[in-house]
Fold:
Amino acid sequence: MAIHCDKIGDTYSFHELDIRLFVTGELELIARYDITPGEHDGRIRLLRQLMYLSKVHEWSIILRLYSEVVSNIERGLLSWASRFDDTLTWAIARQVSSGRASGKPMGGKPTVQRRNQGGKSRPTYCKDYQSNACNFTEDKHWGTVNGERMLVEHICAACLMKRKDVSAHSESSSDCPCKGSRNNSSQ
Ligand SMILES: [Zn+2]
Ligand SMILES: [Zn+2]
Structure:
């Protein structure tokens, strides 16, 4: 039986990130001024440890290790000042043993999880961008969606949902053809 760990479906999932996209996103986050000095140092430490570990483990495992540490921090089980060694060691042990339990050969080809349900994967829109409240100037940047870090884009949420169209305007913009139909209150 396959292990179910990708519930996002056809969106652009965090688990699909390759090493360059991941490191770029993480460095962008580290370079921001609105994170605390503790988080700044912690993220650099975590990134360094993960890069060392990526020499011996598959990239998909490294991404899960990262998710595990960050979600433990979000849940208050760890802080950015913590040593991550124990968490990482346990998480690796679990990944390796669950890989065996599911009958997957370890050390073979890297298993890239890509859910292509009907062709191209759909992008994820930036929530803040819809109300023009996003501080990022980049059209594509890292954000958190349902507790998971993923790349979000400055595209229209309404057009994406209603017309399945990727449009470079925000939901609140007058350019949006879905604007009237989405918000029917009389003006
Ligand atoms: Zn944004
Ligand atoms: Zn639109």
User: Anything to note?
Assistant: The longest helix spans residues 37-53. Residues 14-101 form one domain. The chain has a mean pLDDT of 78. The pocket of zinc ion (ligand 2) is lined by residues 156, 158-159, 167, 169, 171, 176, 178 (CB under 6 Å).
